[in-house]
Predict the 3D structure of the following.
Amino acid sequence: MTTFPILLLAHLIADFPLQTNRVYALKTQGNKGLLLHVAIHVLVAAVLLQRPLSHIPLLFAYGAIHFAVDWYKVNSPARKQTPGFLLDQAAHFFTILVLTAWQPALQSILPLWLVWVGVFLALIPALLTLLWVIASDLQGDRPDSPTLNWASHRLLPLSQKVGSVFVLSLLVATLLIAV
């Protein structure tokens, strides 16, 4: 069952630290931006896998399903973003479970313990982003709340900074292991 943490780590890296404000803006402007976002997902997953060229069908399915889920989210605007965010992440999580059932024993270039550490650390920017989405939604109902005002302006940049440090740390750990 090594596929699950590998794909989950790839998803958390690509959907949070590597989905910059620019990538997000491009994603919402059309299919080219969405394809860029999906390509980042597939590339991160491929980089984490041993022998990625032997897993092209899985990588294609991962990318195609991610495209479909995000296309639906981008083309289904809502007044509140929290429900869409949670449904989007649940759909991606379910996709990873299905792909794990299909090919459960993929191997990572990283030791499995480091993949799991990466997953848990990558949850930090994901949770900060979730809190930012919730705060941004709630601020519309409570515009005078200093806490919500702070959270809706500070949590996303904090998530991006934490995510950048995480990605750089994972790269350094990978290089140290390879040496």
About this structure: The helical segments are 3-15, 21-29, 31-48, 56-74, 82-102, 112-141, 146-178. The mean pLDDT is 94.
